[in-house]
Design goal:
Elements: E1 3-7, E2 10-13, E3 18-25, E4 31-39, E5 46-52, E6 57-59, E7 67-72, E8 77-82, E9 91-99, E10 105-108, E11 112-117
Parallel strand pairs: 2-11
Antiparallel strand pairs: 1-3, 3-8, 4-5, 4-9, 5-6, 7-8, 9-10, 9-11
């Protein structure tokens, strides 16, 4: 059973930075995309950033220009560098791997809390 383990969350002041990491425990093959989502209290989970196996990236408008997603495919690890953090970035951040070839499925991490104080 492959699990994703996130780390790097915490409390930071507005304008500060955090780097989230997500590592897979166990062997995964055929990763299609790795992404970061977040869910704030009372809100739906939303996509923050995503990276394909080929290295293409896409960002939510709220993250573009401040956040950078990257990956180490050899380690099946994805990162999210978050700069210029704002209080509205406060949420639980989840990593997601979409894997498979003929049958696609998602693997989710347990989430890591990011709190940005004003």
């Amino acid at each position: 059973q492959v699990q994703l383990v996130e780390s790097g969350g915490g409390l930071v002041q507005a304008g500060g930075s955090l780097r989230l990491s997500c590592a897979a425990s166990g062997r995964i093959s055929s990763i299609n995309t790795m992404g970061w989502y977040r869910q704030a209290p009372g809100k739906q989970r939303e996509l923050v950033a995503i990276i394909t196996s080929g290295g293409s990236t896409n960002y939510a408008d709220s993250a573009r220009g401040r956040f950078t997603i990257s990956s180490d495919n050899a380690k099946n690890t994805v990162y999210l560098q978050m700069n210029s953090l704002k209080p509205e970035d406060t949420a639980v951040y989840y990593c997601n791997y979409n894997v498979g070839r003929l049958l696609l499925y998602d693997i989710w991490g347990q989430g890591t809390q990011v709190t940005v104080s004003s």
